[in-house]
Fold each of these.
Amino acid sequence: MAKILMITGDFVEDYENMVPYQALIAMGHEVHAVCPEKRAGDFIATSIHDFEGDQTYTEKRGHNFQLNADFNTVKADQFDGLYLPGGRSPEYLRLDQRVTALIRAFFAANKPVASICHGIQLLTASHVVEGRKLTAYPACKPEVEMAGGTYVEIPLDQAITDGQLVTAPAWPAHPAMLSQFTRLL
């Protein structure tokens, strides 16, 4: 089975962090969850984003999630694939040049990468979306287009694959995203 890196951080979307993490492990994959400035055994705070009929999602405090690996020790060549959850964490993780360099290394090696919701902000900041068709939470459409990607509007429970990149708009797409991602692994 595959060895997968998950880059996450405080106020990641709870479902987008925990559900794929557990599902990939249940499928027999090894998942290393890391966050810059934190070590294995440290916790991150999550947030729950829900669709309750407002113009955008609502946000509530989620669970604590325990990391199982150290960010400072990981390299792209140690892994078969990369998973990037959404939520609030991509806003600040994209400012860390170590994170964007690591993401670029996965793309340079043509390894499978899955990104959901606001996780796309990590891809746009890493300059890896130019010429690609991808999706994300609809509010990220301008970022995708400014980065040279083609934003594809799809239902919230669907995902798309362009080469080795799988993207999805939000947590209702877990089944579609995970199915497409694991096929690439």
Note: Residues 14-26 form the longest helix (13 residues).
Amino acid sequence: MKAAREVFAESGLGAPLSSVARRAGVGQGSLYRHFPDRIALAVAVFDENITALEELAARSDTTLADLFDSVAEQVIASTALIDLIVSERDERAEHLDTRMQSVAAELLGRDQASGRFGHHVETADVMLAISMMALMLSKAPEAERAAAAARARAIFRAAFTPTN
């Protein structure tokens, strides 16, 4: 997975899978046995990303702000893979959305119970915010991604704050 992240980050989606195999220190046949195409490889990378987010959410002190920060970091590191998943809309990636919704719902409930986020915010709003941020970061020039992520998080905080 690490090799795939690195190769796609350096060379984009057009990078040959043989480069991923070489970086991982495995034969191309081994790579294709586990990942028959780019989508399968991208889904496996995102499975790891979501597992990390699930582990983050399992900590009792984690907030939606932490989730947005972690998603931004993951997106910045995997922009080419975001483009692939968004452009292909493959059913092999559907479970990723379900898992992400569970993480978002858990953290939203926690933040609403503590008064950090308003009850007007729904899980669908959080998912839309995450999707918007991910797509925007995947398209932003590399030098501007960190600042753009900070601006997006500030907009979401303002929108999700409890209303009086």
Note: The two ends are 46 Å apart (CA to CA).
Amino acid sequence: MKYRGFYFCLFRHPMKKVLADTYGRAYAGEIIKKSKKVYRKLVEEADDIGEDNPMAYNEMFALVFVAPYLASEKKIPPEIVQETMRRSLYFVRPYFSLVDLNTKWGKAANKKKVLKYVKWYTPEKEKRFPTSFKVDFEGEPYAGACYYRITRCPICAYTEKLGVAELMPLFCELDEVMISLQHGVLHRKGTIANGADCCDYFITGDRE
């Protein structure tokens, strides 16, 4: 993929804070410095899923947190990596909080992002980018539900290739945190990382 440093720069501070609180400022500074170079390499060596891919940000986001794990030669445990991601989500909480999944507008906005990707990922795009996310709406619980499922995940595939598959289930758990910041609740049956056929997203408001 084409490298962009935006996400690393955005989450550099909360990541460094977690590492400093756990290991001290010197070690945190060393790891973050190494992580920037590792992140660039991870992005540039990832499968091309389309420069204008509406879901590419998901992978760019996740790789930010893979970087310090690899930069530390896996000496930082997965749970600390997960905490850096959780803290980073709260760092951008005002952005997520703009969407209220208890409202019709919020549910429509949530689904609109997914539909934008489904419209983008035409059969021609799938031939060009065969490893990109595969999304459908099969098994929708009820009409109008905030629901979709992912049956192919390039992030999961890449973490396996990198030998860091142990991080993926922890990342998936943080979907619940992200959705809670939008005043929603994720009702999930399984994830690809945990051996399921798909990652299902059935989302309701937290006041429903």
Note: The chain has nine helices and four strands.
Amino acid sequence: MDIDRIVDTALRLIDEVGVQALTLRMLAETLESGTATLYRHLRSKDELLVLVADRILGDVRVPSEQMDDLSWREAATVAAHSFYESLHRHPHALPLLATQVHVGPNGLRVKERLIRLLLSHGFTAGLAARTYTVLGQYVIGLAIQQHGPGTPRPEDQVHLRDFYRSLDPAAYPATSAAADDLTSVPLHEEFRFGLELLLHGLEQARRTRSEVPAAESSRY
């Protein structure tokens, strides 16, 4: 048994039962092995979860040749969509991406590639770092809101629309008028719209070449 098989099996189980329900005993039984065998490869469940998160980041694959002739905004859009789709495939694992520092080999590969791309397009080191951070926060945050455990179902949106429509238009005229638009935008369009707004703001920052004030260290 190798570590790749252990991590892949753990991710499959998380997809089925969630992070909290996964135990090393469950993992060992699925692998038709014992927990003692797992402990030869892992120190704890926490270490396993770090490896699982990095495994998900390994799915974010954009061929270098696909990026060569793109502007930084086009390249960032491709990378963000690839990241979003990887997260979308593993909704029960999304909390791992939000709570961990991504310093595994795949996480470092993604980080290095995007920051290097930004630097090559005239970003200062400070602005490149902040751009990488805010893009990661946007993609992960929206993926959790849209696809994480407990997110609203399509029928919930219908009920919410009907609720907005039932509000007193004299007290809530704007909400009543926007009832359909608040509850009918497809998730992929919501993602695209927000990403475009974010990239537009970052382009303005790049053009002015202004340093973004230092802040707390990023999780990403």
Note: The mean pLDDT is 89.
